[in-house]
Amino acid sequence: MATLHESSVIEPAASESPEALVARLARAGRAAQALLARLSDAEKSAALLSAARALREDEGAILAANARDIAAGEANGLTSALLDRLRLTPERLAGIADAVAQVAILPDPVGQVIDTGERPNGLHLSRVRVPIGLIGIIYESRPNVTADAAALCLRSGNAVLLRGGSEAVNSNRAILAALGRGLSAAGAPAEAVQLVPTQDRAVVGAMLTAAGLIDMIVPRGGKSLVARVQADARVPVLAHLDGICHTYIHSAADPEMAVALALNAKMRRTGICGAMETLLLDTAFPASQRVVAALLEGGCELRGDARARALDSRILAATAEDWDTEYLDAILAVAVVDGLDAALAHIDAHSSRHTDVIVTEDAAVAEAFVAAVDSAIVMVNASSQFADGGEFGLGAEIGIATGRLHARGPVALEGLTTYKWVVRGNGQLRP
């Protein structure tokens, strides 16, 4: 039965370089992935259900570890948004465990046949989903990523090497310990899920250049982290950029719906990447004052253009930077636009291609918006806070991919696979 190696939970030897540490962990992860590839669908599912049970059983230890991280974060002046991302409660931890259990019962993507065909010479071709291999994930502040990444990678047959932020170091280690215990109890290789045991920033560089050992890097964090990963990586990167999410309230929007969606999209949780950061109000929408008043009275600071400020004297003047800022806080940029085309132009200029929303009762306008907006997620009459793998029925997510290659939107099981061609013949020779 596999056991959790000490190297995955304690600091490395002082003489071990970042490159040597990453190479050692990567080799262990690749060996574990080879073992994982031999497990059946039922065995992988059982391992994750065991890991979910271990998370619930270790609630006290995990919450105590998180309390130490929260105290350190408060002492170090973390923003309220970052503290919210970091904080675990019994309810949030139960949700993390539930997400792991939900991933366990999702269909296994490995071995799925994408398509088939037959050549005139009788060769039968098929494309079959296979794991990517060893995935490196570099993330900040959010301890739930430790469990989500472990579950999704293991279910899709991948091993994972995690490098969490220093803000969540105690929480991440406690979660990893529970996951490792649960995997081992079910006979799965615990080293399929490893946490880099040091906060030395040089380790990030070592991961980014570990071509041949790490098969894909997934960054989850702020703009500076993603920019560094994209600039320095010698390993393929699946990027999750910032969430500058727009909600456009069209002239034909239902006022009650518009107020409710604006409040939820911004204020439900301000620190998540699917939170609305810019509100666009159509100049012909009759209830714009109601929408901004509800946001202001709900505790949100509004920064607007001249026409938005004319709606309510409490709206502050926006700067050019406000249209390109992911606040992750109770702050919102507001602009008044002259119809659909103006809204589309603003979104094209300022969206991070994460999630953009239209609120309207005009079906033709809604379809025009969907066709024109080139974002990973486009919504009609729904809160942008639904931009989440769990809400999409994917169990959990590694992140929201905003690029155009490989995977886009919530990256879950299918996004963590590639494919191979399988060719079956009966002795054909190429002339």
**Helical segment tally?**
14
Please identify, by name, the CATH architecture of the largest domain: 3-Layer(aba) Sandwich
Q: In sequence order, what are the helices and strands, one letter per element?
A: HHHHHEEEHEHEHEHEHEHEHEEHEHEEEE
Helicity, in percent?
A: 25-40%
CATH topology of the largest domain: Aldehyde Dehydrogenase, Chain A, domain 1
Secondary structure layout plus pairing:
Layout: H1 18-36, H2 41-57, H3 59-75, H4 80-86, H5 90-104, E1 113-118, E2 124-131, E3 134-139, H6 144-155, E4 159-163, H7 169-185, E5 193-195, H8 202-208, E6 216-220, H9 223-232, E7 245-249, H10 255-267, E8 276-282, H11 288-297, E9 301-304, H12 306-309, E10 316-317, E11 331-337, H13 339-350, E12 355-359, H14 363-372, E13 377-380, E14 399-401, E15 409-411, E16 417-424
Parallel strand pairs: 3-4, 3-6, 4-5, 7-8, 7-12, 8-11, 9-10, 9-11, 12-13
Antiparallel strand pairs: 1-2, 2-16, 14-15
Helix pairs in contact: 1-8, 2-5, 2-7, 3-7, 5-6, 6-7, 10-11
